[in-house]
Design brief:
The protein contains one helix and two strands; from the N terminus they run ββα. It is of the alpha+beta class. The chain has one domain. The protein has a two-stranded antiparallel ribbon. Strand 1 and strand 2 form a beta hairpin. InterPro entries: START-like_dom_sf (IPR023393).
């Protein structure tokens, strides 16, 4: 694994919270913030889309690991 940020990012922060729900369940909420270098600014929409897709996949992987296989969700 490569350490450090790619050259087009100036900063990166991930905050995670675990919210208690009823029935002994919980919800993990994550917020990612990143700073884009001036040279990367024209590509910021593509960077945001790719990061969003990667984080969604990561979230689904965590959910599957913790809860086991389940039917795909429909809607939001």
């Amino acid at each position: 694994m490569q350490e450090g940020l790619p050259p087009f990012l100036t900063s990166l922060r991930n905050d995670w919270e675990i919210e208690a729900l009823d029935g002994g369940r919980c919800r993990v909420v994550g917020v990612a913030q990143f700073g884009v270098a001036a040279a990367g600014a024209p590509k910021q929409p593509q960077i945001e889309q790719q990061m969003s897709q990667a984080l969604e996949g990561f979230g689904l992987a965590i959910q599957t690991t913790l809860e086991g296989e389940r039917e795909p969700r429909t809607g939001s």
